[in-house]
Amino acid sequence: MALIDLVTPEVVKVPLVAKTKMGVLEELTELLVKANKVDEPGPVLNALLQRESLGSTGLEKGIAVPHCKTPHVKTLTLAIGISPEGIDFDAMDGASSNLFFCMLAPPDQSGPHIEALSEIARLTQSQSFCRLLKGSQSPEEVVELFRD
């Protein structure tokens, strides 16, 4: 499954309301509940927090990719959140994160999970793409950027 197939307006939040790392994880989890991608937020949030306890998924240059494996999804699932002002996500470079790609995968499906992480890494190498994402005003605009 291509990353583009996972990006729909229902799983994109622009802008995020959260101002903290915990708030981002809660907001993206709730977004997935509202989109009917997960049934209940608690176990998913706990799985994301457990993964974060192993090491922050805040990367560099404003990118964070919180992810985990959980039996609470049947297939690879993605939520995208954008915070134009940035949020401290304990990133490797110490900078605030603006673009959040929250990925959930079933425990028995490693392949699609790894492919999607790789595709996110490739896309976010483009500073112009990240700048356009960060400036997006709506979920539909984000979806359009991924389709282009």
Question: Main beta sheet, described?
Answer: 5 strands, mixed
How far apart the termini lie comes to: 17 Å
Query: What integer is the average pLDDT?
Result: 94
The total count of helices amounts to 6
- Count of DSSP E strands? 5
Task: Report what the structure shows.
The chain is an alpha/beta fold. It is 43% helix and 18% strand. It has six helices and five strands; from the N terminus they run H-E-H-H-E-E-E-E-H-H-H. Strands 1, 2, 3, 4 and 5 form a five-stranded mixed sheet that branches. Helix 2 runs antiparallel to helix 3.
Structure summary:
By secondary structure, the protein is of the alpha/beta class. 43% of the residues lie in helices and 18% in strands. The model has no long low-confidence stretch (mean pLDDT 94).
Layout of secondary structure:
Blueprint: H1 3-6, E1 12-13, H2 21-34, H3 41-54, E2 63-64, E3 67-69, E4 77-87, E5 97-105, H4 110-123, H5 127-134, H6 139-147
Keywords:
148 residues, globular, alpha/beta, 43% helix, single chain, five-stranded mixed beta sheet, 6 helices
